[in-house]
Amino acid sequence: MKTAIVGASGAVGQEFLRVLDERNFPVDELVLFGSARSAGTSYTFRGKSIAVKELQHNDDFKGVDIAFVSAGAGASKEFADTITKHGAVMIDNSSAFRMDADVPLVVPEVNAADAQNRPRGIIANPNCTTIQMVVALKPLEQLSHILRIHVATYQAASGAGAAAMAELENQYRQIIAGEKPTVEKFAYQLAYNLIPQVDVFTDNGYTKEEMKMYHETQKIMHSNVETSATCVRVPSLRAHSEAVWIETERPIAVEEARAAFSQAEGIVVMDNPAQKEYPMPLFVAGNDPVYVGRIRKDISNPRGLSFWCVGDQIKKGAALNAVQIAEYLKKNALF
Ligand SMILES: NC(=O)c1ccc[n+]([C@@H]2O[C@H](COP(=O)([O-])OP(=O)(O)OC[C@H]3O[C@@H](n4cnc5c(N)ncnc54)[C@H](OP(=O)(O)O)[C@@H]3O)[C@@H](O)[C@H]2O)c1
User: Is the pTM of this model over 0.90?
Assistant: First the structure.
């Protein structure tokens, strides 16, 4: 397989290098792309040094089977035709095409088969907060249809990219040294703070990130479920956490939910309150699964259930999910 990574220098691009290797993805040749900023920089993959090429409108994608693209929505929109015109399948991590009717939006544990129908040669990877939530919701939906979701997210700095993660680390260093912290990537100082805004606000008072959770959840789950989200940036480095409340058609008992989570693909149940066992971003960052804990009845709603989930948003929320889509295509001879 000739494989390309677009946005190789970024937080997600670097994770692609690790995940492709970790999963023994069959790469015969790897080509790396970036903007003029990182062109010429080399990264090592399976012992071989590979220089980043500048992404341009040319025939560099001739012969490429699969392109993992994580260079932001602007670059995805601008270069989609260049990337796909010779037949490469583009798995896109940006928000550029997620809600387009002719682009499947895929989380393999939930709707892998949607990847089969991709008239434009593009498959979209959902927003990271949505991915981990729908992985957790899938086994519950199989028990009883989910009508409504309330969710509050606790999103790590790295969700905003490599430079944002570096800014948070630097802010702590600067504060300890008695200096004024540099604030560039976030609207406010994130160190010792929480910012109840991820992405820009829309007309209804929700942010774009929150509306992504609303729309993408419906598309992936093929469901009319309504999601009301509050997305918050928190000063952790990696792995997003979510407090989720759902309302189902019939009540789901806690033990029933726990059993369904335990058997589900991609989920690890970590739920032993007596032993203070629940998932936390510090301890699960870098891991593949979505971790679920704090499973309990919602005392405010007889048909309500509440849980907490944590997932590495650069891994399952981005690179791993995209590679799993490619693995599904390969396994089912869909290239
Ligand atoms: N971080 C996450 O947790 C996460 C999770 C899910 C999805 N995503 C999505 O994945 C994408 C990348 O995110 P990130 O966090 O990896 O960002 P990042 O760390 O800021 O990296 C951005 C990457 O895009 C490249 N790039 C930017 N403009 C380009 C252009 N015109 N042509 C070619 N390459 C270009 C950059 O290359 P240069 O260094 O050469 O400029 C860099 O490699 C975004 O769409 C983001 O929304 C991120």
Answer: yes
Question: How many percent of the chain have pLDDT more than 90?
Answer: 99
Q: For the residues 188-215, what does the mean pLDDT come to?
A: 98
pLDDT digits (tens, 9 = 90+) for 208-229: 999 999 999 999 999 999 999 9
CA distance 26 to 265: 23
> Can you read off the two tokens belonging to residue 63?
């012969």
Q: Is 12 in the pocket of ligand 1 (CB under 6 A)?
A: yes
Are 252 and 163 in contact by the 8 Å Cβ rule? The answer is: no
Q: Is the CB of 198 under 6 A from ligand 1?
A: no
Nearest residue to 325 via CA among 28, 63, 19, 81:
19
86 is catalytic: no
| Cβ count within 10 A of residue 51 | 13
Shortest-distance atom of ligand 1 to CA 14: 16
pLDDT of residue 333 exceeding 90 = no
Order of strands, sheet of 2-6, starting from the edge strand that comes earlier in the sequence: 42-45, 48-54, 29-34, 2-6, 66-69, 89-92, 122-124
Q: Are 16 and 322 in contact (CB under 8 A)?
A: yes
Q: Rounded to whole angstroms, what are the CA distances from 180 to 165, 188, 206?
A: 18, 12, 31
Span from the CA of 177 to the centroid of ligand 1 (angstroms): 31
**If you measure from the C-alpha of residue 132 to the centroid of ligand 1, how many angstroms do you get, rounded to a whole number?**
20
Residue range 236-288, pLDDT digits in tens = 999 999 999 999 999 999 999 999 999 999 999 999 999 999 999 999 999 99
Rounded (5°) CA angle 212-216-218:
130
Active site (annotated) includes residue 309: no
CA 331/CA 25 separation, integer angstroms:
12
pLDDT of residue 335: 77
Beta strands in 55-145 (DSSP E): 66-69, 89-92, 122-124
Q: Which two tokens stand for residue 93?
A: 């991590």
**pLDDT value, residue 138:** 98
What separation in angstroms does the CA of 168 have from each of 8, 195, 209, 284?
22, 13, 20, 19
